Structures are given as C-alpha cells and as structure tokens.
Fold these 4 entries.
Entry 1:
Amino acid sequence: MAERPTTNWRGDVAQEAAGLAAGTLRPDCAYMVDLFPDELLSATDAVLDAFEAELPALAEEDDEHVFAVVQRVVLALNAVHESHGQCAFETDEREQLCAYIDEALTEQGIDVAALTARRGLGRHELTDQWRDW
C-alpha cells in the first residue's frame, strides 16, 4: 500500500522530539509539533482510512465511480484543512497528499494518466477541481 503522508509527518515529529530530548536540537528550532499537531494527523488519517476502504472495489468500476471516490477524499481533506485555519496543508503536504492519492489508485489497477486524459485533464490535475488546500 502507498505510504501515507501522515506516516512521514509523524516520523518527523518523533525525530524532532528525539533531538529535543537528546539536546541536539534547540527548542527555538523545533516546529514539527506546531506544523503537525496530533489532532491534524488523526483527522487526516481518518479521511485516508475511509479512502483506503473504498479502494479495493475501484478496479472494477467506471470513471465516474473513481472520480466520485477522489472527490470524497478531497472534500474530506478540505474539511480538515478548513478546521485547522486553512493552514493544515501547505505546498509540500499538498504535493504528498496528491501523490499518495495517485499512487493508491495506481496500486488498485487504475491508470490515472488515462483516467484523467479521458476528462481532458493532465495526470496531476486529478484533484484540482475540488481541492481547496
């Protein structure tokens, strides 16, 4: 399964905490806990849990169904972003989430490039029409 961005973000938080505990990182240089509070990580994981639950059936579905699943995950991530003051997902996080959605679909046998092309979109425009983050 595609690696969730939240796994990386949790790792960054843990690495920073270890640096603080070991004294190799000054407190004024620590920012990961502020960027990725547990509430944000948990809410994002809940959205990704729901998305992943829908994935196994997608290889058998038509484009409309696949796009509906993408729309649901993007709108749910919009809600997480909004509930965190519109600053939950910045450029790096946004790119990681989009790459994760693409990779997760690809692992289920969805040809994302062909899927988006049939709608006149580029591969990297898969989430654009719904994404606020």
Entry 2:
Amino acid sequence: MLVVVVGPCGSGKTTLVKRLQALGYTARAVAQEHSQIGELWKHGGTPDALIFLDASPATITRRRRNEFPEWLYNVQIERLASARRNATFYLHTDRVPSAEVQRRVIEHLSTLQRAQAAQK
C-alpha cells in the first residue's frame, strides 16, 4: 500500500511518515506545499491513501520555533488544494498528539486495506 502524506510545513508529515515506515508501510511525504505543480502528490504513482495533515499558522510557528506568516500558510493551502480534494483522510493536528495522529491514520489505512481486500 502506497501512502502519501501532504500538508503545510509543520503539520506533522515527517513524523508520521517515519512512524508509518517503521511499521512497514510504503510511505512518503510530498512537499506539495512548495510546488506550483498542482498534482505533485501523484508523481511516483497515484497513492492508495492520500493523507492530508493540517495545522494553523500559530501551531506551525510553535513547532518550527520561528514565525510562520499567515500569508505563507494561505499560499501553501492554495498549492495543496488538489491534494485536499483528493485526500482519503484529513486531520487538523493542532490539538492532536503525534501518537494519536499515528493511531487515527493507521485505523484509516486498515479500513482501506479491508475495503480493498473485500473488492478482490
């Protein structure tokens, strides 16, 4: 199962991908928020699961330990529009600990895997 994780800077993509990979998932973060290619998230193959993690500019500032301006957040969200529309799972991570993010995503991936198995 190919899992692609997208979201604005500081939303938790890298942390989640590392945890998913440690559990044996083929997972990668795509820096869609930095690209004007609207469907960069599809490069490398259309994923079985597209996970969209979001966070507010205030939370991103705290996590990155430097100012993250709202205008930049808005640019990134615009660049992520296609991924947001096509996401199989969306989670706003401001108040969700990383272990809970992982739990919810794994639950989603398990549901997708069961649905794929039932179609066979």
Entry 3:
Amino acid sequence: MSAKKSIAKNYIYNMVYQVLILILPLITTPYLSRVLGAEGIGIYGYTYSIVTYFILFGSLGVALYGQREIAYAQENIEIRKKVFIEVNIFRFITIAIASLFYYFFFICGAEYQIYYQILLLELIAAAFDISWFFQGMEEFKRTVTRNVLVRICSVTLVFILVKNSEDLAKFTLIYSLADLIGNLSLWLYLPKYLRGVKVKNINVLKHLPQIVLLFIPQIANQIYKILDTTMIGSLVSNKAETGYYEQGQKVIRLLLTIVTSLGVVMIPRMASTFASGDKKKINEYMRISFKFVFFLAFPIMFGIISISEAFVPLFFGKGYDKVIVLINIISPIIILMGVANVVGTQFLLPTKRQKEYTISVTIGVIVNFFLNYILITNFESIGASIATVLSQLVVDIIQFWYIRKDFDVKQLFKLSWKYLVSGLVMFALCMGAKVILDINWISEIINNISMNFDTHKEQFINIVTISIQVIVGIITYFVMLIILKDDYVFKFLDKIKNQILKRKS
C-alpha cells in the first residue's frame, strides 16, 4: 500500500471516528435541547468541564507521547510492548492520584454532587483509553470500529430513558458508561500486536521527563478548549448562557473535526519521516496538509454562517436564537484551528519542537483567560466567543513566527487564495438565495406548501431554505474551483473519469 493511500484511508477512518464521537450525541441534541432545556445543558457542560481538568492532569502527556513512541517502534514488537506496558502503568498511577483529588474536592458535598459522582466514571474510562497505541501503529480502523455499537446503543438509551429535565442524571450516566465500555472494548484487539514477546527491565519513571514536556502543551491546549465554558459557568449566574455557548461550540466542534482529523493521522507519519531525515518529504506533507485545510475550512466556515439563521431554530428548537450569533462569531475558528493543527500538531510536535508549541498554546491560554474575564463579565457568552477567536489568532501568529525559517510562510498562504475566493463567491450566492426565498411571491408559495405540515410549518420552511442554500453553495464552490483550475478538483474529476472508462471497458 502506498503512503498516500495509507494516509487517505487513515484520514477517513479517523474522521469517521472523531465525527462519530460528536455526531451521535449531536443527533440527540435537538431532543435534549427541548427536554433538558438550556439550564440542564449548561449544568452538564459545566460539570463535565470540571472533570475534564482532572482527566487532563491525570493523563498528563501520555496519549501524545505514547502515540509518538509507538510510531517510532512500529516494526519492533519488543520495544513496542515495553513502551505500552510502561506508559500504561504510568497512566494508571496518575489517573488514580487525580481521582483521589477529584473525590475529595468535588464529590464530597459540592454543588451538583450527583453529577460529579457519575462523572467519576469518565476518569476510570480515561485510565483504560489505549487509542493512542493504535494511532501510533497507524491502525485507525480499530479505533473506529470499537465505538460504533456502543455509541449507537447510548443514543438509543437516551431517547428511551431521558424524558424530562429531571433525567439529567440518567443522561450523564449513559454517556459516561458509553465512554468506559468503548475504551474497555479496544483492549480485545491488543493480543494481535503484543503477543509472543517477553519484556524485562520495566522502567516507568524513565518516560517521566518526556511525558511532562508533552503534558504542558497538551494541558494548555485542552484547557484552552474548555476554559470558556468553565468561566461562563463561574462568572455568569444564568446557566442558560453556558448552555447557549455549549450548543454553539458543539456545532463548530463537529465541523472542525472534519478539518483537523488529518492531524492525528499525520503525527505518526511525520514522526517516522522526521526520524528518517527526509526533509523534502516533510515539506511535501506540509503543503498537502495546508491545501487540504484551506480546501475544506473556507466553504465550511462560510457555509455555516449562511445557514445559521435557519439551522439553529430547526436543530435546537425555540429559545436558542442567541446561538445564531455565537456560531457566526466563533466560525473563523474553523480556519484558525485548522491551520494551527497543521503547524503545531503535524509539524512542531512530531519533530520534537515541543518548546515552541508549548509557548504558543500557553500564551493562547493566558490571553484567553484575561479576555474571557473582561468580555464574559460584560457580554456573557458573546464575550467568550470573541475571546476564543482572538486568542486562537494569537496562537497562529506565534506558531508561524517559529516556522518562518523552515518554510516560506507567504507561499503557504498563497495556497489559500483559490479557496478563499471560491468561498466568498459561494457565501454571496448562498445569502442571495436566502434573499430570493424571502421575496413575497416565493415566500407565499413556500408558505402555501407548508400549510400541509400544520405545526411543523416553520421547520419545513427552514429545511427548504437550508437545502437550497447548501445545493447552491456546493455547486458554486466547485464551479469556481474548476474555473480557477484547482488541482484537487481536477484530480477528483480524473478519478471519476477513469472509473467510468473502467466500467465501460
């Protein structure tokens, strides 16, 4: 199998896995938004953000370090098994310590105690998470298949058991158990990769320095992701604000997953390429990654902004109008984090430049904290959204400064112009389509058709609006790329042409 084919397949597997984790809960979102309400969603988001801190501190930099070390030892089963055992023992110990602190600080008499008690399962689940091993082996198919049945079962249970706002505890338990069972199920695949070799001289502590070095950027990066939710929950008495922010972030995170899933796939590939000293190949991979991010990020960002007004009430129901504003403000993150994923995750970390990566994300966290404190106090969830975008911009600027001698940054940005232009034209026509649909006589036709749907009239109108905008957007974007002679599109068209010719022959 060629390297490119392997990367393409692993990207698809990883994207499916990451999207699965987000999309199955997202399927329940319209239902839960109505059943649990913004306050219930806000309480869950706040308590989950707290337990996430303990998971992060308990996990240290184990996942990232373990993935990289397994990638270095893909062909050596003895070293591979030794690394797995040592790293896993290390993680069990640190998660156990984190669990003790979590128990004493948040389970004993804290507000929302019942939810904190249930969320202890998330810490246990984290101890048994070995997805890093399979990612290091570039066996992404394993991490996809493990959760399909578990996640589908959890979604089914949510619809069966969660009926009103009093069932928030049931909802929390269902999702926590799903994470635990999903992680445990992955252990069934291990014998194939580790059997037949005896390991001696186990030394857990030798990994500590490197794990800590990777822990700092990882913890900074993860705190950066959940800091907004925690600070809204702490600074704003109305927990509905946390709920609005959580719902807006949920949509953006799902879309962002499509753009950044290549990053996890490229870490072991870049690590092995770096180990071989092939700088030319590294430059080629970086160019491919940047083009890929630009190709997806611009239409996704412009697309969600153009349909947000119809999408939010259709998806979340009534009472979530503020989410429209939040999605529009946060959407540039899709491009900013997509680019940072290429520079930081795909280049700086695999090439052992943790220091530069650590500095960039740490400064991002500090900027995010101060901007949050100022803006959330005055503008609540809108302030948090603005702070998120600005702090991520700071991270991007710092990371590009660090790679300025390794790559021609101007040339990297020049790769984006076709996708930016095509995205802008797409956005203009999508918004134009909405304006046309709002013209009196067309609006009357849609209203008359929707009369057959009685109470679902508004939903029908929103579905029609979104469908037309999406169709117009997709056609416009690809036509523009054909006009601009983008090589991605022409390669895709060539593949279709070759498939047709093969069938005819």
Entry 4:
Amino acid sequence: MKLSEIYTKNKLIFSFEVFPPKNANTENLFEELAKMNKQNPALISVTYGAGGSNRNLSLEIVKELKNHLKQPVMPHFTCICSSRKYIEKYIQEIEELGITNILALRGDEPQEIEVCYRDFKSALDLIEYLKNHSELEFAVAAYPEKHPKAKTFDDDINVLLKKQELGAKVAYTQVFFDNESYYNFYDICNKKGVTIPVIPGIMPVISYNQLKRIVELSGTKIDSKVMSYFEKYKDSKEDTIKAGIEFASLQCEKLIKFGVKGMHFYTLNKAKSSTEVIKNIT
C-alpha cells in the first residue's frame, strides 16, 4: 500500500523503525520484528549507517521483510556521498523488489570514507531526482525542534514546504520528549501551508545512558525533570523499560487528544516497549 493511501484511513496508524544490527546477525532482529508485526503496523522502516554503510545488510533485511515475513516495509534512502549512478542502481533494486515507499533523507556525513561523491547535497536534491526518475512515493523527515543545521525555524519549515511541493506524502519527526515542541511545530506548519501528515516520532526509553547519548547526538531537548525521572531507574534495566513505557504511553495519549494521525516508533530493535505502548493507548 502506498503512503498516499495509508494516511487517508480513518484510524490511528502505527509504524516502526529498525536498523541493521552491528554484528550482522539478524536472527534476533527478525524475532523482534515478528512481535512487532502482531500490532499490524502500516510500515516498518529500515535504516542504514552514515554514508551508506551497511546498506547491503539493510537491503537484505528489506528483502526478508517483503518476501518472507510479508511485512510492509519502507527502506531509508540517503544521498550523502552517493553518486548519481549508485542512486539510480539502488532505485532499480528497490522497485524490482516491489517496494513502493521510501524515506528520503540527506543522511549523516560519514566519519571515514575514501570517496565521497557530491552529486546530491541535500534531501531536496534527492527528492527532486526521485520525483523525475522513479515511481516511488516518499516520506521525509521533519524537526519539531529545528534541524541542527537550519539557520532559523522558518527556514527549516520552508524546506519542509519544498519537500511537500516536490511530492512528499508524509513527514516523520525526529524523536522528541516534550509534546509542546510538537504542538508548536504542527501549528506553525499548518499556518504556513503544510498539508501532508506530520507524524510524531516516539522513542520509548529503554536505557538511561542511551537516552543521554541520543540527546547529545541529536540535540533533542529534554527537560531536567524528565532526565531526573529516568535517572532514578538507571541501575535497573527492567525498571527503566517500565518507566519508558509509562512515559511514552502518556505522551502518546496526549498526542491522540491533539489529533495526530499516527505514531512512528523508534524501537531500537526491541519490540516490547513500543508494542506495550500501543496496547496501552488502543
């Protein structure tokens, strides 16, 4: 089912994000995916590393999801350091698999790479190319707390408007822990003419140290009270997971009241927390 069809349904839509495991052992991942599939997700998105690292493993996971597990799948598709020829080949591979939806991103700059092509400098370059050279429908990223490299909030929303103009069907937000940032972002988007669904990105916390790392790397804002809340449980994995489920469930309940069309769960390759949140709110 295409993105343009998924978010027209009169029900709350759930999607999950996973990534290729570092050790390339996908057995545990597929066990977790089978658990996620019990929630009937509209999509499972599959990432890969900066500069296209582990993209081959990512594609193998996409194939397994599509052909054997029969799960709806949306590959991530980044362009930084990729040549036009490589992008063309990758589009062909994706379309031959029968994939209809992708998440189009600029991607992170790789730390170490021998050759970095600059055929595509931004997500907009990639999106325009996809529009003209494929039948794929594409989702895009959105940033409730502003993209770190955007000069102003208005500039960032203008980029989202351009993505919409080029054919984006839905936007998934970066993870956030303060709903007010999403409400404010949504209202501004609405006033500026963003009409595509802007789906909140939710990450149930499963580790205090991991939470700190994500906040540091992404620049996501987090209230000191929230950090203190999770710090209380940092020495107990079980209690941290429980607290993460409770926090994310409350967050989602409030988002539903606000009127969102769905949630995109950053699962960290673990089914339990995200699926428990869904059970709590449905």
